[in-house]
Amino acid sequence: MHFIINGNRVEFDFDPRTSLLDLLREECHLFGAKKGCNQGACGACTVLANGIRINSCLALAVQYQDCEITTVEGLGSPGELHPLQAAFVEHDGFQCGYCTPGQICSAVGMAQELKCGVPSYVSDDVTAAGFELTDTELRERMSGNLCRCGAYNGIVDAIQDTYGTNRIESSEREAT
């Protein structure tokens, strides 16, 4: 089966019951996405599939054949971090770091949702053309990603610094 993982086309032969998370970790040796709860409740395994955030522990790898999968390793490099990765460092958006890759991938996907006008549960007007990324809106959109250390203030600050009001368009241009 063929996949595009972090921009590289790869082919694997594996048991069709393999989760995308296990494929990434065991076959690709990409250890950013973590197996936290293995039930889709914590978000530690969040990756992007064609730009949309998913819980890779709940996804069968075969479902994503020929899709573009982006893990935290594919967002930046040690010499050139993605703007959100740099903001996490600047705002101390992590403590133990276990949830950080999932938080970052989720926030990148969330920014794309905002850009596309996807409302959340707390959006005032679900028919609006765009949404302001208030702290309430941000916290609701990121609620599927848990941090046991409680580094939420740093996480929110990092995401606001990168994608806050009127920053989504410019941050997306900087990342490409």
UniProtKB/TrEMBL annotation:
<keyword id="KW-0408">Iron</keyword>
<dbReference type="GO" id="GO:0042597">
    <property type="term" value="C:periplasmic space"/>
</dbReference>
<dbReference type="InterPro" id="IPR001041">
    <property type="entry name" value="2Fe-2S_ferredoxin-type"/>
</dbReference>
<dbReference type="GO" id="GO:0046872">
    <property type="term" value="F:metal ion binding"/>
</dbReference>
<keyword id="KW-0411">Iron-sulfur</keyword>
<protein>
    <submittedName>
        <fullName>Aldehyde oxidoreductase</fullName>
    </submittedName>
</protein>
<dbReference type="InterPro" id="IPR012675">
    <property type="entry name" value="Beta-grasp_dom_sf"/>
</dbReference>
<dbReference type="InterPro" id="IPR002888">
    <property type="entry name" value="2Fe-2S-bd"/>
</dbReference>
<dbReference type="InterPro" id="IPR036884">
    <property type="entry name" value="2Fe-2S-bd_dom_sf"/>
</dbReference>
<keyword id="KW-0479">Metal-binding</keyword>
<dbReference type="InterPro" id="IPR036010">
    <property type="entry name" value="2Fe-2S_ferredoxin-like_sf"/>
</dbReference>
<dbReference type="Pfam" id="PF01799">
    <property type="entry name" value="Fer2_2"/>
</dbReference>
<dbReference type="InterPro" id="IPR052914">
    <property type="entry name" value="Aldehyde_Oxdr_Iron-Sulfur"/>
</dbReference>
<dbReference type="GO" id="GO:0016903">
    <property type="term" value="F:oxidoreductase activity, acting on the aldehyde or oxo group of donors"/>
</dbReference>
<keyword id="KW-0001">2Fe-2S</keyword>
<keyword id="KW-0560">Oxidoreductase</keyword>
<dbReference type="InterPro" id="IPR006058">
    <property type="entry name" value="2Fe2S_fd_BS"/>
</dbReference>
<feature type="domain" description="2Fe-2S ferredoxin-type">
    <location>
        <begin position="1"/>
        <end position="75"/>
    </location>
</feature>
<dbReference type="GO" id="GO:0051537">
    <property type="term" value="F:2 iron, 2 sulfur cluster binding"/>
</dbReference>
<dbReference type="Pfam" id="PF00111">
    <property type="entry name" value="Fer2"/>
</dbReference>
